[in-house]
Design brief:
Elements (H helix, E strand, L loop, with lengths): L7 H7 L25 H10 L11 H13 L4 E5 L2 H12 L5 E5 L4 H13 L3 E5 L5 H7 L4 E7 L1 E2 L4 E2 L2 H10 L4 E4 L4 H4 L9 E5 L13 E5 L5 H4 L4 H4 L9 H5 L3 H14 L5 H12 L1 H20 L4 E5 L9 H7 L7 E6 L2 H11 L4 E2 L9 E3 L11 H7 L5 E5 L5 H12 L1 H6 L1
Parallel strand pairs: 2-3, 2-4, 4-7, 7-8, 12-13
Antiparallel strand pairs: 1-9, 5-6, 8-9, 10-11, 11-14, 13-14
Helix pairs in contact: 3-13, 4-12, 6-7, 14-18
Bound molecules: pyridoxal-5'-phosphate.
């Protein structure tokens, strides 16, 4: 339409548009609610097959570029980006399970995920059983029922730094044709790619390491693209049955990628936690430097953990990178390039020492976030795990003197100097 001769009001919203084709090296940000159709048939075709772009909640080129990037980093076939990590976990679980179904989950999971399973999904008719000894395949096997639709665990779990034996637990799922869903937020695909060890689905809070800058929230689901309808169809009737109005079912249209296609077509856009294309761009920018950051963060974390373990004020350090950690062998087997940068340590002085610590650090930031380029500290006992019983906190490795660190990319000397000033303040003044 030519708008040059129209009124001011019309020119305000129509003038000046028109896209010159240009090969932007950075991913262009398509910050738009929707996309103009070329013609009548193009619109009908989009609604018929989902091809091309119509509305940003169902697809956006910036979002898709980041999905391809993250799928490639995780060695997956395809990915769906969401507005937060919680949205990714919820969407992944609602992709595999519905009312009357059952999930087996590790006890050692993010508190938000635990709430989702115990409260929200239970109210939707999806029941969850929890496994405490996640290293024991029989403990998982024992919880599986005929209506179990997924196993769920974190590759590196807070607060004890347990390392998931991805191959062994995927194999248990495989016996029953059930996917293992791994929350790989703490490990990142730089250190561990669960799909290469047999996991079917990986989820992330992209708000953490993938973005890395702590400026946005985001989440992603990555699928292995190996859904086998002949083996697993009975566990996923919504994927194998014909579609509404006799249309071909999801497997018929998408084959091995049926699961992620269903997440993209049916779950993500209807529950509606779509990411902003601007946030998608910022996650993509962050992910480009993931390896550099995580390598440095892991190196810093190992040094900080070793230093802490040698301090009188410190009772224990739960970091899988230390030879003394019960899962160190598994960490060596599964993680390459470092051992991650999130771990807890416990002060002998208990709650009061923990309070002094968070209020005295200067280089560390006191906040509830992880995977940032900055080093962060939080007291789980009175924050994330405040509403657990003492017994539950004990099982999870959260004591009154326990602090969680997320180590950043700063100079490790400055980090240790900050810790040293706080932890050795009293003896130094006495001396
Ligand atoms: C932060 C986090 C989530 C939730 O992600 P949000 O982006 O905060 O919604 C899920 N799992 C783990 C392991 C996390 O650390």
């Amino acid at each position: 339409m030519t708008v040059d001769t129209t009124s001011f009001l019309t020119r305000a919203v129509h003038a000046g548009r028109g896209q010159e084709p240009a090969s932007s090296r950075a991913t262009p940000i398509y910050l738009t609610a929707g996309f103009e159709f070329d013609d009548f048939d193009h619109a009908a075709g989009h609604f018929g097959t989902g091809a091309g772009f119509g509305y940003t909640r169902t697809g956006n080129p910036t979002v898709h570029a980041v999905e391809r990037q993250l799928a490639a980093l995780e060695s997956g076939a395809d990915a769906v980006l969401l507005a937060s990590g919680q949205a990714a976990v919820a969407t992944a679980l609602l992709t595999v399970a519905g009312a009357g179904d059952h999930i087996v989950s590790s006890t050692h999971i993010y508190e938000g995920t635990r709430g989702l399973l115990l409260d929200n999904l239970t109210r939707l008719g999806i029941e969850t059983s929890f496994v405490d000894d996640i290293a024991d395949p029989d403990a998982w096997r024992a919880e599986i029922r005929p209506n179990t639709r997924a196993l769920f665990a974190e590759s590196i779990a807070n607060a004890r730094n347990d390392i998931l034996d991805v191959a062994a637990i995927s194999a248990v799922g495989d016996e029953f044709a059930i996917p293992l869903i791994v929350d790989n937020t703490l490990a990142t695909p730089y250190l561990l790619r669960p799909i290469e060890h047999g996991a079917a689905i990986v989820v992330h809070s992209a708000s953490k390491f993938l973005a890395g800058h702590g400026s946005v929230l985001g989440g992603v689901i990555v699928d292995d693209g190996r859904f086998d309808a002949s083996r697993a169809g009975h566990n996923a009737p919504h994927l194998v049955l014909p579609g509404r109005g006799g249309l071909p079912g999801v497997v018929e249209r998408h084959g091995g990628r049926a699961r992620i296609a269903y997440a993209r077509e049916s779950v993500a856009p209807r529950f509606g936690a779509s990411p902003s294309p601007l946030n998608a761009f910022l996650i993509g920018q962050g992910a480009e430097t993931l390896a550099l950051r995580v390598e440095r963060q892991s190196r810093n974390a190992l040094e900080v953990a070793r230093w802490l373990a040698a301090q009188d004020a410190v009772e224990s350090v739960d970091y899988a990178g230390l030879e003394t950690h019960p899962d160190h062998d598994k960490a060596v087997r599964y993680l390459s390039g470092g051992f991650g940068s999130i771990f807890t340590f416990t002060l002998r002085g208990g709650l009061e020492a923990a309070r002094r610590f968070v209020e005295s650090v200067q280089v560390f930031t006191h906040m509830t976030h992880i995977g940032d380029v900055r080093s962060l500290v939080l007291h789980p006992g009175t924050t994330s795990h405040a509403f657990r019983t003492d017994e539950e906190r004990d099982v999870l490795g959260v004591q009154p003197g326990t602090l969680r660190l997320s180590i950043g990319i700063e100079s490790v000397d400055d980090l240790i100097a900050d810790l040293s000033r706080v932890l050795t303040a009293v003896p130094e003044t006495v001396a």
